[in-house]
Amino acid sequence: MAPSIGQCAVGAAIAWLVAKDLLGHSRPFFAPIAVVVCIGVGLGQRLRRVVELVAGVSVGIGVGDLLVSWIGSGAWQIALVVAIAMATAVLLDRGSVIVLQAGSSAVLVATLLPPSGAGGFARMVDALVGGLVGLAAVALLPASPSALAQRYAKGMFSTLADSLRQIAEAIEQRDVRLAGEALEEARSSQTKVEEFLQALETSKEIATISPLHRHRRPTLEGYEKAAVPLDHALRNTRVLARRAIVALDGGSPLPPWLPGALRDLADASLMLRDELAAERPPDKVTKAVLEVASRQRSERWGFSADVMIAQLRSIIVDLLQASGAQREEALAALPPTDVHTHDADGQAPRDQEETRPPPAPPGTAPTKGA
């Protein structure tokens, strides 16, 4: 949080000085407030925040000035002003910042800052100044976008690798409890996926705004290509773990090569993490995943084993796509099989939990998951 806190502190002071000393506004408190709202201390879309901030303040002040000049101030006047200001903001845009700023600005106008000449326009200018200073702070005092993406990607890769290894160990030891622990590990991944997607969007925004980090945009493309396939891989791993519990609990036979294949896929996922962080082409990852794919045979082991093999094939496709391959190329890399528990794309049926559409990076069309 240190970079964001520093940006907020420095930006708030500068915004106050600009609005007070350069523009001559006597109490420009909207300017430093706008900086803090714009930058925040979390991940998010700062360009959109600036637009929502200025629009929200403008709506709140406009509605507040208009109504308070007619009906005065008081309890019922505050209720009416806030309701109309927030309703107007919702009609314009459902973003949380614009609605909250419209309501809070209306409260200030109705209580502490009654209308006075051009005061409303000056407050709107203060909000705009604060928003622009906030963007400048992000551009000139930025966190490293590649470091931000790497930090949040580690959680996804680690969860995927740990889950695959736990499933492999559970199969080797025929231990249902270990398979259950692997399922719980995989279930914790969705929060990490959402945090990574938000961090990736923030990283792209920093690389766009900041002249110091525009050269990092190609680095982020690798993470952007890998984001959705990795989410699919984690979802498929959850299904794999659940089927492992069923297979082990029922004493179903499983292929002896399956634990080794799962461990090698875990190693490949960590290798992909390192290759993306080092900005190297993930050729070694592709080779390792293809080697796992080549081990499969067309023998039948029973329904549970067939479903697990189908999920393994789906994870292979996911990792190949995360390494940069097109979906058709990834599917073509799979050896033929006569197992019919999966569909035409090599995808096993999912239970209800896994049919939710995965989150896609903003600006990216939804992709069919393996």
UniProtKB/TrEMBL annotation:
It is a multi-pass membrane protein. The keyword Lipid metabolism does not apply. It comes from the Bacteria. Residues 331-370 are annotated as: Disordered. InterPro entries: Memb_transporter_dom. Residues 14-136 form the Integral membrane bound transporter domain. Keywords: Membrane, Transmembrane, Transmembrane helix. This is Aromatic acid exporter family protein. It comes from Nonomuraea helvata.
